[in-house]
Predict the 3D structure of the following.
Amino acid sequence: MTSTRSLGVLRNGWQDDAATVAPNVPGLAELLDRQLDEAQRRGQLDEASLLSIVDAASQLAADSGAGDAVPALRGRLRRHVDQHLLTAVTTPRPSPAPRPSPRSWPSPAPPPALAGGTTAQRPAATGGDRVPGLPATAAAPAGPAGPATESFPFAALPVAIADVPAGTGLPWRAVGGHVTNVLIAAALSLVGIFCCLVVGLVVTGHHVEEVVTGSMQPTIPIGSLVVTESLPAGQLRAGDILVFPNPYDKKTTIVHRIVWLSHDQSGDVLVQTKGDYNATRDPWTLKRSSAAAADRVFYIIPGAGTVAVDLRGIGFWGLIALVVGVIGYYGVRKVRQILREDVAGDDAGSVSEST
């Protein structure tokens, strides 16, 4: 069923197309309007009938010498047809009229005549003969002869019809809650893993250093983390990557490779270092006792230094804020759940008391 409004939108759209795309074609707007009125009068407003009007308009434009405008005209007219048909399909249909509850059913045939010209009579219904759950019906008054009927009270039946919504949307609030839970769990997991790694390294005597320069590229990229192990200096070998304080600036740490190693007469270890990316050796010679502790790199984590800096920037109070926020979030959710359960219980009690 096509609404008058949808048909008016189609008519106006066609008139605009004719005036915009093919303004020099005489009689084009009148042809569209006339054939649309004829199709409406015949009740032929299906897709094939509307497209035949589009073909007629395109043929008129071609015959009038406006062949260049025919493709654009046909496309715009067809687009309005598609929009009209889509609107007609999605237009809700009017709801049917309510059906009356009482219905009349034919009564059984009258009893046969008995001997002597008498007719068997059905006993009158008493209070004990009435069907439980159905109200008693009053006797119909005498009237003209005709088929006897009795009314069946359908309205008395306890029938409940649930209203079914036309469409339901996605539970966005539930989806948002699940996404929030996943994000919180992921954040806590990352923090927990990082804390476990740091504690584990500290307990086992290892250290973690961040590399901020490119002197050891490509072996150690900028922004990497190096994990060191502590061992006696006498166990160092040429080619090991050593982590040590800068002899010229004790506040900075150097991560360079051992390129020369020797021992003096007292047994102390002499070491010269160099960055893999540097062209020359470092200008110092390190001296360590053979029993002194030295930090040697045994594992490299590329790119992890940036993450460590971010976590370090968050700091202790950031972690506390995250934990408090998580506890508060789940606490509010639990309180709201308890309140909803209380309201549901009160509503159920009210319904039971009213019934």
